[in-house]
Fold these 2 entries.
Entry 1:
Amino acid sequence: MTNKTDTTPPKDTAKDDVAKDAPKAVTPEVKISDTPPPTQDQAPAKVAAIVPDEAPQRLTFSSDKGASGSTWFAAVLVLAIVGWMGSGFIIPSEDTDPVIAREDPKPVAVAVTTSLAETVTQFYQAEGQALPDRDTLMRAETSGDIAEVLVSKGQDVSAGDVIARFDPTNNEADANRVAQELVLAQRELENAESLLQRGVATADRAADARAALVAVQSQVTAVEQAAKSLTITAAFDGRIETLNLDEGEFVSAGTEVGRLVDITPLTVAIQVPQQSLTRLSVGQPATVRFITGEEREGVVTFVGTSAASETRTFLAEIEVENADGAIPAGISAEVIIPTGEVTAHFLSPSIVSLNNEGALGIKTVNAENVVEFFQIQVVKAQIDGIWVTGLPESVDVITVGQGFVNETEIVAPMAGEPS
């Protein structure tokens, strides 16, 4: 073992030695410092204990008593804060602020106008086209040369008037021939019957003569019919719309030679959709406005019962008097047909609104100043307003502010301008 000296090391040297010696406490040797011992103002240094070389020292750890004290202090502080915050619920303050109650909103002001139902006539309106009452193509019934043309295109004719004539030369020759054959056939029949009565001729000869006479008579009839076909005549009163004939021209049987049109009266054709077909019937009066500015009264003369496969619409015809022929065929026309009367209200389109389901309607105010919504149907439209059904006989209609109120809401109605 070594002897311990009494020398006192300086302050800084003693701290370094302690720091160096602390982890080496397990060694059996003790390092002796030449520095003097620390003074009273300096912290004492820990000196490793002298232990035998053969028995190592066991390490021990101890907690800091100051650290456990700070933990208890933090816990007490938290409990004090929680207690202070909770005291407001247990012991409420006497100086509480008064609760301000919100006032109920005032009813929305709206302008209303009293509307009374009136009787209005419903109309069915459609666009159509003016057509001639009768329109036919003239065709040649026989073949031959045109001898003369007696009318011109655009000329008015009456039923039976001659339009043109064929050259009758060939027909006259055929007529003379069959006339002679008819005389011979009649004479042959008379001789055969005379000889049969005297017993000289047989019954077969008389039958053959009778058959020959009938054949000649049929030829005479054909020649007479061909003579009638040499003349082209008008089938009805009308106007020659087209004429494709010239004198000396050869025309075959069945060739189209002209067009005859009758526009007195006119027929206006319209197409009626399926949902409106039941509103029309034969005999209903109608007003027809032509694109030329003319306006005439007419009568429904036909309502179809079979829809067109392409459009699923039904044909209807209105007859319009046109004795003077002032209205031409083929022009556009507007047809207005009264279909009945209904009780409706006349309102401005601007006050019409939609409900949550998207239905078209009008908002009104009842006797308790509660907003009501009525679904409507437009039965007639005009430039200055619409006629609608679905409202009571008399009702207060909201004319201003209907967009700011809802059904069942209480409002403050005020008199407004008529809608």
Note: The first helix runs from residue 11 to 21.
Entry 2:
Amino acid sequence: MTAPADRDADSTPAASDDDERVPWARLSACAGVYTAPTALVVAPALADVRVLAATGWAPGALTLASGLMFVASAPGAVVGSSAADRLGRRPVAFWTTLGCGICIAVGAAAPRQGALLYVAMRVIGGAVSGGTAPTAFSWAMELTPHKARTRATTAMNVLWVLGPLLIAAWHVATRSASWRVEALGLAAFPLVAAAVARVSVPESPEFLAARAAPPPQRESEVYGIVGHLDPDVAAADAVAPTEPVEAPLRSPLARLWHEHRRPLVPLILSWACVSASYYGLAYSAGALSKRVVLNFVLLNLADVPGYFAAGYLTKLAGTEPVMVLFSCLAGVSLVLVALKAPAGVGIFGKFCTAGMFQQIYAMTTERFPAEVRATAFGVCRVAAMLATFFAPPLARNSAQLSLRALLPSVPKPVSAL
């Protein structure tokens, strides 16, 4: 009987390194899983006002729910992505996305006095879905030939924007309905995405190849003074030659740290800087429209040109030079925003930070082998989450916390930097 893993391997055509075709159907299914957690993470920006108006719950309850969900998603990212490197992208992506949808659906059924249940489902959903995005992105890249991965990265990031746009469209479509109807529709998003990916996307061929590789061998140990053989040991070896001893298997997280620390540490710092810049500029850019939903849509659409520009320039100059270019432009934008530049400067900076995200995803894909790639994404996303947490307060209090407040003699441009 053929094992399930073998069936997955047989159903996945081997892609040549010279192949430049993007597997659009599979990539789209992975993108659905990749963006599905936005139904839990992004939707509260629009939906919570309706929930509070209908239930009479204390606003602090939903604020607490969002904060705890954010905290829970950090260990969820590490645990889920490590599981993807052990068990496979396909099962982890399916079950975490399914769990996200179930948590949203159960929260939608919370009674009027069930604020605690609603909060608990949001927190559990954050923990369960924390590893979904690292797993889905790794899955999509490993299904794509190497020469097509720049386009695939651009496509995944652009398709991610569809998540918030669908959430906004559903919010408008259900504006005259109960908040529970809106929540159940949001739950359907990850549930459908999980089912589509499960049916249409095979396991990652790179993961299967890494799992099929022979385990690492440990060198035979030598005892005593170098150059001198113990006659008893030599005689025993002559009678019964020793077999190579297998090295103990490390967890993906331990292996990532011990074997790939050199690229990991700079990337952790880079993810934190990119995320802090992105959300700091998003906060500082202000409103593009007085209408909440339209402003929500416009701020998300502003990222799309950045993804396309970064993808195009990468084909011409490579990943690192484009990353440096967009980082410098984003840094200048941050300085100008701190100096009270017009809102358009903040939007341009957000365009640049979107390009930085495009590059940091590509760099993380390139730097790590399949057996630790999802874990690397998970660890880096935790760094990005922590930076995201601190970005809005820093942007909001920049005037009070700036160096200028502490050292009045410092020139204003230096203080802004």
Note: Strands lie at 217-218, 245-246.
